[in-house]
Amino acid sequence: MRAEKQSKMGTEDDLSVLNTQLRSLEAGERVEVLAERFAGRIVATTSFGLQSAVMLKLLREHAPRIPVVFIDTGYLFPETYHYASLLEKELDFSAHVYSPRVTAARQEALHGKQWENGGTDLNNYARVHKVEPMNRALQDLGADAWISGLRHQQSRGRSQREMAERQARTLKVYPIIDWNSEKVERFIDDHDLPRHPLAAAGYVTMGDWHSTSPGSSSSQEATRFKGERYECGLHLESGQQDFQI
Asked: Which residues are catalytic?
């Protein structure tokens, strides 16, 4: 079964063709194409972050059968959990929640606050709290394609990404990667979508409470991990993590 799925991913030429096709479409059409092409083997993820309502709304309107995965690291802001509940009710869906196999309390007792140390410790923290649960979600749901709401404008590391790319054995696709912040805000307003409570508190990005700080939209990278890095866990450069078990 695994080999069959892998063959369906196609060649690099196929990936180039997919990127060309997606670039010519609107975001909702992109989601529809992906839902049809990868039916039964595609998931979407949400962080229930500041702009997550956009991708969730697009999914509900254009591909409501695609499962939505929420990685609960155990270190999210209380406001994020409340926002998740609100959006699920507002958009009439239930996320597939995946958590680490080890509790936050046990992890800290055994290994300390690894996110404070950077380097190997921070990578180990990401592996336990983000990568392993996502691997499990992909396996449980039988997926080798993954929709995410990454955008070019969010960071330098994301600015050069293609709309569709491979990360190890998983195809990752970003239907709103070419949207700027103004378009995102206009979509939220036009559809009267609820906003994350911490947006009004000066937060411009959203992640774990211990590694996210308020800041300005012009320097989003400075609001994560004290400006030392923006990505931690799921969204790294292609090939750096093996997300598919």
From this structure: 232
